[in-house]
Structures are given as structure tokens and as C-alpha cells.
Specification:
This protein is an alpha/beta fold. It contains 8 helices and 15 strands. The protein has a single domain, classed as L-arginine/glycine Amidinotransferase, Chain A. Strand 3 and strand 4 form a beta hairpin. The longest helix is centred in the first third of the chain and has 17 residues. The N terminus is likely disordered. GO terms for molecular function: amino acid binding; dimethylargininase activity. One of its GO terms (biological process) is citrulline metabolic process.
Amino acid sequence: MTISDVAGTPASDVAATTPRRAERRERGPRTRTPRLRRYAMTAPTFFTVSYAINPWMDTSTPVDTDLAVRQWETLLSTYRALGHTVELVEPVAGLPDMVYAANGGLIVDGKAVVARFAYPQRAGEAAAHAEWMSGNGFEPRHTRHTNEGQGDLLVVGSRILAGYGFRTDHRAHAEVEQITGLPVTSLELVDPRFYHLDTALAVLDDTTIAYYPPAFSDEARARLQKLFPDAIEVSTADAYVLGLNVVSDGKHVLMPANATTFAAQIANAGFEPIGIDLSELFKGGGSVKCCTLEVYS
């Protein structure tokens, strides 16, 4: 199946002020409406950094697992306080990265794609997520090529934005498109610090994204500019604290607490930022979105 691509002119690192943006400033920020969501999460019971498979991981840096659990519980309780449904996937000993539940697969419109991990250290997570999917009424489907779930497969409205370059194999995009029936737009990542799409791009609602332009190839940036001309472009300082690794219900945006400039940007756009401290889980290269698998209905 052919993957949907959109041509366009390469975007500049610095956003130009377009008439549409100027008009929006005159009108003021939009009123945003939250929608109740369904999430799956895995407690960091066995979280540690015992190997390094991304630039954020340092095996010489101590990890406080008890603190990681408390920070994760704050994220969990915040979702539930907002009225969202959170289901728990049982953690498995020996799989310290299983807390990053977003990487376990993609579930959209009742169709489930199970992750096929790039590194053997995480391979066992796929079976645990497939079991959870089966137990919750989904038929898990597998790709022949590597895919790391919602780490690289982000749903925006009726489209999937799909990252490749470090973890997910570009060839898996066509498989995902065939399984889900949704058009897939491929985006090449070029900076290893942003090894998953969800570290470089945030979905804020069905038509709004934010992203860090230097994380993408020129072609990918052109596609994003064409699809989302009003996208929020995030600074290096906020990107380097994984500020884009967020979860939004269409109004409330749960995000890393220290991405303060980005928080101001999304507040100006009418969203409500909610800072979450996941400093221990940052040591493994993840934050809010990495810990959250959304079940898209």
C-alpha cells in the first residue's frame, strides 16, 4: 500500500509570522475542549538504567526506583483526577524500560499493532503488551519490520505521523497503514537525541502539533509545514528536557515540568499546561508520553 506523502517547501528553523497567525493573535487564543481518554500504563517497579540504548541513558548515574514510582504515581493520579480511564499493564522483572508503555504498540479504532523492538533488551515487552491487548478485546497484529509503537506512531485526527531513522524501520509504515486503514505520513529523524518521534513532536489536538525542527530532515520539516502551517516550534532548551514528550486531552497538556517556555507557548494557544516532574524516568530517556499508551477509539 502506498504511504501518504505531502510535498512542500522546507521550513525555516525560525517560524515566520503569517497573516493567519497574526489574525489569531488579534482574536485571542482558541477555546479548547478536553475529551475523555483511555490510557494504559506500566508501573516502574523494576525501573533502572542497566544498559544504554539512547543518548540520555548513563549506567553510571544512580537511579532512585522508589522516587521513580512516586513520580509515576503522580502522573497516574493526575490522569484519573481529570476523568481519564487508566488501565495497568503488569510490569515484568528484567524489563526495566517497560515503564515506557507508549512503545508497546499502537491501538486505534479497535485495531492493535504490537511493537517489534529494535534492541534485544526490550524485546520481551512485546509479548507482555500483546497479552494485555488480547485480554482487553484487541487482536494483536505484528509487523515484519521494526516498529516501536507510539514512540514513533502518533495519531493526529485521522492520520498517523510516523517517525523513522533510529528505531522504527521505514518499511513498517506501509504495514501500519495496511493494518489500521489510516494514511501514514513518514517523517525522518536525524538527531539521535530525539530517537523517537514522541521526543521531537507533540500532538496537542486533532489539528494542532508542536515540534522541534532540527530533529527532522529537511523533507520531513517540509511535510510538517505543509500539513500544520500553524504548528508551535519549540526551542532547543525545551526540547533538550524532552519538553515535547507530552500527553494532551485536547485542553489539558501534561508535560515535563521544566519545559517552561513551551508551557507558555501552549497556554497562549489556549491549552492548559500541567507540569509533571518525572526526573528519574528522564534518566532512561523518557517522560510523560513515553509512560502513556493511548487507546484511540
